[in-house]
Amino acid sequence: MGRTSDARERLIEEAARLFHARSYEAVGVQELCEAAEINKGSFYHFFASKEDLLLAVIDAQWEAVRTQMLDPGLADDLPPLARIERCFAIMAREQRSAKRAAGLTPGCPLANLAGEVSSHEPKLRRRLARVYSDMQERFAETLRDARDSKEIPSKSDIERKAEAILALAEGAMLLSVVHDDAAAVARMSDLALAIAKA
Asked: Which fold has domain 51-197?
């Protein structure tokens, strides 16, 4: 049943797809094995539990967010505030692309998971908290550059502004799901810049 050499990666990929499409709680181990074309014994060879698989999914999704959105969006080839604007544009583009592929605006897979598991799965909540802290730090780094280049006030509370911009981005992703509106993230770009400049 399927290839074994990339079975772990297939499991992570299929789990990410199914958890995002339906929810972590709604998808069982047997369904995951069938989707990845492996037997149940192989699942437990790679992961002790579905929770351990979800930890690997979170790591894979964070890697995707970093490499596909944050790294290109916040790259230092533009002035700092233009980087934040570009980051929001990339997030919006990803939502539009995902909507074309799936027929619905999917939102942020990490935020969807956080909303589902954080209140009752402490191990998963801690991993997600670390991911969100890392995201916030990426915005904080860019805001420090903006402060150093005098784009924002020298006495700016960088951490608070970075937290607000992250909350705005993730909140916009949530609204994009609720309203099935892939443009919701793009509309928040000006507000993100206003927060940075305040």
From this structure: Tetracycline Repressor; domain 2 (1.10.357)
**What is the rounded average pLDDT of the residues 79-93?**
97
The stretches of 22-119 forming alpha helices (DSSP H) are: 29-36, 40-46, 50-65, 71-73, 80-102, 109-117
Structure token pair of residue 56 = 């690997």
Measured between alpha carbons, how far is 70 from 138 in angstroms, rounded to an integer? 8
Element of type H or E holding 36:
helix 29-36
pTM of the model: 0.90
Superfamily of domain 1-47: Homeodomain-like (1.10.10.60)
* Ranges of each domain in the chain: 1-47, 51-197
Distance CA 172, CA 186 (A): 9
> Tens of pLDDT along 90-129?
999 999 998 898 888 888 999 988 989 988 889 999 999 9
**Rounded to an integer, what distance in angstroms lies between the CA atom of residue 16 and that of residue 126?**
19
- The three-class DSSP label of residue 172 is helix
Report the C-alpha gap between 87 and 68 in whole angstroms: 10
